UniProtKB/TrEMBL annotation:
<keyword id="KW-0732">Signal</keyword>
<dbReference type="Pfam" id="PF00119">
    <property type="entry name" value="ATP-synt_A"/>
</dbReference>
<feature type="transmembrane region" description="Helical">
    <location>
        <begin position="238"/>
        <end position="259"/>
    </location>
</feature>
<keyword id="KW-1133">Transmembrane helix</keyword>
<protein>
    <recommendedName>
        <fullName>ATP synthase subunit a</fullName>
    </recommendedName>
</protein>
<keyword id="KW-0812">Transmembrane</keyword>
<keyword id="KW-0406">Ion transport</keyword>
<feature type="transmembrane region" description="Helical">
    <location>
        <begin position="279"/>
        <end position="301"/>
    </location>
</feature>
<keyword id="KW-0813">Transport</keyword>
<feature type="transmembrane region" description="Helical">
    <location>
        <begin position="209"/>
        <end position="231"/>
    </location>
</feature>
<dbReference type="GO" id="GO:0005886">
    <property type="term" value="C:plasma membrane"/>
</dbReference>
<keyword id="KW-0138">CF(0)</keyword>
<keyword id="KW-0997">Cell inner membrane</keyword>
<comment type="subunit">
    <text>F-type ATPases have 2 components, CF(1) - the catalytic core - and CF(0) - the membrane proton channel. CF(1) has five subunits: alpha(3), beta(3), gamma(1), delta(1), epsilon(1). CF(0) has three main subunits: a(1), b(2) and c(9-12). The alpha and beta chains form an alternating ring which encloses part of the gamma chain. CF(1) is attached to CF(0) by a central stalk formed by the gamma and epsilon chains, while a peripheral stalk is formed by the delta and b chains.</text>
</comment>
<comment type="function">
    <text>Key component of the proton channel; it plays a direct role in the translocation of protons across the membrane.</text>
</comment>
<keyword id="KW-0375">Hydrogen ion transport</keyword>
<dbReference type="InterPro" id="IPR000568">
    <property type="entry name" value="ATP_synth_F0_asu"/>
</dbReference>
Length: 383
C-alpha cells in the first residue's frame, strides 16, 4: 500500500505540472505534502512565465537613443536583421585593428582581444580590451557607429538638397520666372531663415555669418526629421546625442569669440557698471566672463534635452502596449488605443519640435554673434 501511495502521489505531481494553475487554486490540506509540492511547482512555473513575458523597457528605450556598433533593422521571428558596421580601434599593445562588428558575434563575443563591455561595466556598450594586468581598458576608438553612419547619410541628403537648389539657380536666366515646387519651397525656407533670423539678429555684418547659420539650421532640421522616421536610414538619434550638440555649440562659441569686436571684449572685462562692482573685487567682470561659457552650454543642453526627451516619450508610450499585454484584454485594449493615439500626437508634435529646435538654435547663435559684433557709442551714432 505504501508503494502504491507513492506511485499515485508521483502521478499527481506530473499531472499537476501539465494542468492550468487554476485547477489547484484551492488551499492545501494541512499535512498533505502532495498538495504542497504541487502548489510549489505551479508557483515556480508562473514565476518563470512572468519573467519570460516581461518587457525590457529600459533596454528598448536606451537601445534606441544610444549609439551602437551595428544598425538594427528589424526582427523576423527569432532572426535579427542588422547592418554590421566597421570597428576601427588602436590598441597600445597591438596597434591598429579594423573589422566588422559581426565578427564579435561569430566568435562568441570576442575578436582579436576586443569585446563589447557588458552591462554594469565602467565602459558599458563600448569596445574594450584587457591590458597586461587584466584590467578592462578602452582603446582609441574611431569606429563607424550607428550615429556616425546616420550623420554621413543625413549630411549627404543635405548636400544633395542644397546643391540641387544651387544648380537650378545657376541655370536660371536673369529675370526668369519664379521657381515653383520643391525649389520654390526651399527658396521660401531659406529666405525665411536668412531675413527673419540671421539678418535681423546679427546686424550689418550678417553676410559674413549667413553661410554658417544657414548650414547649422538645415543640418539640425534634417537630422531631427530623419530621427523621426522609424525605418532605415532614419531612426538614429543624432541630435539627441550630446557629442553632436557639443560640437555645434563649440562652432558657435569659436565664431562668437574669434570675430568679437574690441567693444565686446571691453564689455566683458570692464563693463559699464559702477566702479565698486569692478574694484577691488571684479564681480561683474567675473560674471560676464562666466557668461561666455554658459551661452554655448545652454545651446548644447537645450537641443540635446529636447530631442532626447521626445524620443524617450514616444518609445515609452509604445512599450505600454506590451507591458499591459498580461493585464487582460480590456486594459490592454484601452491602453493600446491610448498609446497609438498619443504616439500619433507625439509624432506630429515632434515634427514641429524638429523645426522649432533648429530655429531656436540658429536664432540664439545669431543673437550671440550679433552681440559680439556691436560697436561702441561713436560707431552706433555713425550708423
Amino acid at each position: 500500500m505504501k508503494q502504491l501511495r507513492n506511485i499515485v502521489a508521483g502521478m499527481l505531481v506530473l499531472i499537476g505540472g501539465m494542468l492550468p494553475a487554476t485547477t489547484f487554486a484551492q488551499e492545501p490540506v494541512p499535512g498533505d505534502t502532495t498538495a504542497t509540492l504541487q502548489q510549489e511547482i505551479i508557483v515556480g512555473k508562473d514565476t518563470i512565465n512572468q519573467e519570460a513575458n516581461q518587457v525590457d523597457v529600459k533596454g528598448i528605450v536606451f537601445g534606441h537613443i544610444g549609439d551602437s556598433y551595428e544598425w538594427h533593422i528589424t526582427n523576423i521571428g527569432k532572426t535579427s536583421i542588422c547592418i554590421p558596421l566597421p570597428i576601427i580601434v588602436y590598441s597600445e599593445t597591438s596597434g591598429w585593428h579594423a573589422f566588422l562588428s559581426s565578427r564579435l558575434e561569430e566568435n562568441g563575443g570576442k575578436y582579436e582581444g576586443f569585446y563589447i563591455a557588458p552591462a554594469g561595466s565602467k565602459y558599458e556598450g563600448k569596445v574594450v580590451e584587457r591590458n597586461a594586468t587584466g584590467e578592462e581598458v578602452r582603446p582609441w576608438d574611431i569606429s563607424i557607429t550607428k550615429v556616425t553612419l546616420s550623420l554621413f547619410i543625413n549630411s549627404a541628403i543635405l548636400l544633395a538638397i542644397i546643391l540641387s537648389v544651387a544648380h537650378w539657380y545657376r541655370k536660371r536666366e536673369q529675370g526668369a520666372y519664379a521657381p515653383g515646387g520643391f525649389i520654390g519651397f526651399m527658396e521660401m525656407f531659406i529666405m525665411m531663415v536668412h531675413d527673419d533670423v540671421i539678418k535681423s539678429c546679427v546686424g550689418p555684418n550678417y553676410k559674413k555669418f549667413a553661410p554658417y547659420l544657414l548650414t547649422a539650421f538645415f543640418f539640425i532640421f534634417i537630422n531631427n526629421i530623419m530621427g523621426l522616421i522609424p525605418i532605415f536610414p532614419g531612426g538614429a538619434n543624432v541630435t539627441g546625442n550630446i557629442a553632436i550638440t557639443l560640437v555645434l555649440a563649440l562652432f558657435t562659441f569659436v565664431i562668437v569669440n574669434i570675430f568679437g569686436t574690441k567693444h565686446y571684449w571691453k564689455d566683458i572685462f570692464w563693463p559699464d557698471v559702477p566702479w565698486w562692482l569692478k574694484v577691488p573685487i571684479p564681480m561683474m567682470p567675473f560674471i560676464e566672463f562666466f557668461g561666455v561659457f554658459t551661452k554655448p552650454f545652454a545651446l548644447m543642453i537645450r537641443l540635446f534635452a529636447n530631442m532626447l526627451s521626445g524620443h524617450m516619450a514616444m518609445l515609452v508610450l509604445t512599450c505600454l502596449i506590451f507591458i499591459s499585454a498580461s493585464m487582460g484584454p480590456a486594459i490592454n485594449g484601452s491602453l493600446t488605443v491610448a498609446s497609438v493615439l498619443f504616439n500619433i500626437f507625439m509624432n506630429l508634435l515632434e515634427v514641429l519640435v524638429a523645426f522649432i529646435q533648429a530655429y531656436v538654435f540658429t536664432m540664439l547663435s545669431a543673437v550671440f554673434i550679433g552681440l559680439a559684433q556691436e560697436g561702441g557709442k561713436k560707431e552706433e551714432v555713425k550708423e
